[in-house]
Amino acid sequence: MNVDDVFLMLDAKTYQADYVSPNVEKLLGITIEQIRKDICVLGKLHPQKSEDPKKNYLEKIQVDEQKEGDFEYVHQKTGEQRWFHNIAMCSEVNGKRNTSWLCLTVPLIKR
After folding, report:
1. Averaging pLDDT over each range in 31-35, 59-63, 65-69, 97-101, which range is the top one?
2. Which residues have a Cβ under 8 Å from the Cβ of 38 and sit 6 or more positions away?
3. Which of 21, 29, 66, 73 has the most CB atoms within 10 Å of its CB?
């Protein structure tokens, strides 16, 4: 991981953020406190409204499985649109199912 990555460790059942990397505000314009209070705040990043902002899209990922995709996000403080590559994976830690969501920046590309 480097300084241009955002890393979130989420509990798969409660969807609560166990860890949020300190650079999240710089890269996404959302504070750690906002994410810890309500993870659905990340839904504001999408330029188009998602069909169900409260839906847990990670719960279907199985242990040792990962899903990836590229997404365009809007920085919440500057309005700048940026492309990110997201990797979501599920693991077990001390017998507890955890879902990690890793958000990697990619160069801004016109699509």
Report:
1. 31-35
2. none
3. 73
What confidence tens digit (pLDDT) does each residue in 43-80 have?
Answer: 888 877 655 655 666 777 888 888 888 888 899 999 99
- Dist CA 35 CA 19 (whole Å): 10
| Cβ neighbours of residue 60 closer than 8 Å, sequence gap 6 or more | none
Tokens of 66: 């990962």
Read off the amino acid at residue 30.
I
For tokens 């953020």, the residue is: 17
Which tokens belong to 71?
A: 């997404």
- Going by the DSSP 8-state scheme, the letter that residue 61 receives in this structure is P
Phi, psi dihedral angles at 25 (to 5 degrees): -70, -40
Q: Which residue has the tokens 């990922």?
A: 61
Which pairs with CB-CB distance under 8 Å and at least 24 residues apart come from 38-42? 39/10, 39/15
